[in-house]
Amino acid sequence: MTLRMKKLACFATTLAMAGTLALPAVTLAQAAPTADTVGITAVQNSGMQLSGGDVRQTVANIINVALGFLAIIAVIIVLVGGFKYMLSGGSEDKTSEARKLIVSGIIGLAIILSAWAITSFVLSRLLAATAQ
């Protein structure tokens, strides 16, 4: 590819990205949103409470969800390491890389599970100590 073609491709890409960024502003050219158009009034009239729970319990739920996602990522790392190990074909470099991935995933999973146990213990004791 010549230099002129590279510049042309770069210009076309930049133009396409600028157009993509400007398109929502053009298509959503309307009046400013009000409470009625967004639906806030309907939620207020329905009697639904968006945050009726205890803040400590909400924090505990957020921590549990975050640790769950981290555990899923650690399991995926172990699976990727296993696939790399199976597909290594006996190559010493590939098998050592796969073993490192598997060991790293298992260590990460152990850390995540211990963090979950510690936070679960601490939060249960905190909730018990501050119960009304």
Key words describing this protein structure:
0% strand, flat, 80% helix, mainly alpha, 132 residues, 5 helices
Can you offer a commentary on this structure?
The chain has helices at residues 3-27, 35-38, 40-46, 55-86, 92-129. α4 (55-86) runs antiparallel to α5. It contains five helices and no strands. The chain has 132 residues and is mainly alpha-helical. The termini are far apart. It has two domains: 3-46; 55-129. The mean pLDDT is 83. Helix content is 80%, strand content 0%. It is flat and about 70 Å long.
Share of β-strand residues = under 5%
Can you count the beta strands? 0
Query: What structural class do the secondary elements suggest?
Result: mainly alpha
Q: What share of the residues lie within helices? A: over 70%
Q: Please, what is the average pLDDT? A: 83
SSE string: HHHHH
Straight-line N-to-C gap: 73 Å
Radius of gyration equals 26 Å
Unreliable runs: none
Q: What's the structural domain tally?
A: 2
What overall geometry do the principal axes of the alpha carbons give?
flat
Largest sheet report:
none
Number of helices: 5
Short overview:
By secondary structure, the protein is mostly helical.
Write the layout of secondary structure elements.
Blueprint (H helix, E strand, L loop, with lengths): L2 H25 L7 H4 L1 H7 L8 H32 L5 H38 L3
Helix pairs in contact: 4-5
